[in-house]
Amino acid sequence: MAPHVRPRVFVTRQLPGEALGRLSKHVELRVWEEELPPPREALLELARGVEGLITLLTDRVDAPLLEASPSLRAVSNVAVGYDNIDVAACTARRIAVGNTPGVLTETTADFAFALLMGLARRVAEADGYVRAGQWRTWSPTLLLGADIHGATLGIVGLGAIGAAMARRARGFGMRVLYVNRHPKPELEAVLGLRRVDKATLLAESDFVSLHVPLTPETRHWMGRAELAAMKPGAMLVNTARGTVVDQAALAEALAGGRLGGAALDVTEPEPLPMDSPLLKLPNVLLAPHIASASHATRGRMASMAVDNLLAALDGRRPPHCVNPELFP
Ligand code: NAP
Fold first, then answer.
1. Which atom of ligand 1 is least distant from the CA of 290?
2. Could you give the angle at the alpha carbon of 180 between the alpha carbons of 195 and 176, nearest 5°?
3. pLDDT digits over 202-211, tens only?
4. Cα angle: 317, vertex 321, 322; to 5 degrees
5. Topology (CATH) of 105-286
6. Residue of the nearest CA to atom 48 in ligand 1?
7. What stretch(es) of the chain map to CATH 3.40.50.720?
8. Which atom of ligand 1 is nearest to the CA of 104?
9. What is the mean predicted confidence (pLDDT) over 281-299?
10. What is the value of pTM for the model shown?
11. Residue 178: strand, helix, or coil
12. How far apart are CA 308 and CA 317, in angstroms?
């Protein structure tokens, strides 16, 4: 890219690592420096006249935004999920869309497993108990939890992160069931997994962990009927997207004692309003959407997003492109 035709790029948040420094050598760069994402009006205004956007899952890239930015040629999302982007609308305007699969797989599975363990063994409750000065003596009945070894884990969506979760579970001596659109016979053979239907997974799993992308088919995948079909006392882990779960039904199932607990890295909306019933339940473990948040992984995601953007601005297919049909 010659210096006199440097494309204009807007990045909706400061990113970790050296990626934006590298990007600034190739483009006219503008970065939103505030902690909170640009409000909708600011995003529309700052996207006007740019050729490239680097976005986060907090930024909605839809038809009105594309109309406000007719010069746009590339949108690079710093996430593997891209439910914040209207990909069909981008494709119709020949705008390439990139994402960051793979690099966050192991880090996200680490956190999903950390949530599972933290929920089962009540780690956050135990920490609060000690800090509050409530610990008076060793007790045989204090903060009893659920065993992880020997329990059954049901994985919903055996993609990259689901498979990484299954590997961890096998290492901990768990039995692992899964549902997925397509069978994964190689993983079944290597990891000793069993593909089952939804009803069996819900009825037999002590823990259910969600790893599907948010799509029209997976919206409220875990609805009222599914929650009622879970094994009594079972626990739910969600590191996928908040809307994969019917959250009102989940709060009721937890409050009614039907479920043993839930660990949620993702919610609907994000952040949760402070009057959410989930915040009042001791058997709910919450995190602010940080499953991929390790120093190394967030740096790699930023770098990959920059690689995707630079390729698309150069007329090449981004290394990780969600609408590759634009590059036959
Ligand atoms: P992936 O490799 O594309 O895996 C997604 C899996 O879901 C695939 O196996 C797919 O099946 C399956 N699937 C899709 N629709 C389904 C349906 N209707 N019913 C059953 N299975 C279905 O994606 P990934 O990298 O594992 O990431 C999964 C999701 O995790 C992302 O989309 C994102 O939303 C979320 N995520 C969250 C965080 C976080 O910070 N909390 C971090 C990373 C990712 P097929 O194999 O048949 O296509």
1. 40
2. 40
3. 999 999 999 9
4. 140
5. Rossmann fold (3.40.50)
6. 181
7. 8-103+295-326, 105-286
8. 43
9. 96
10. 0.94
11. strand
12. 8
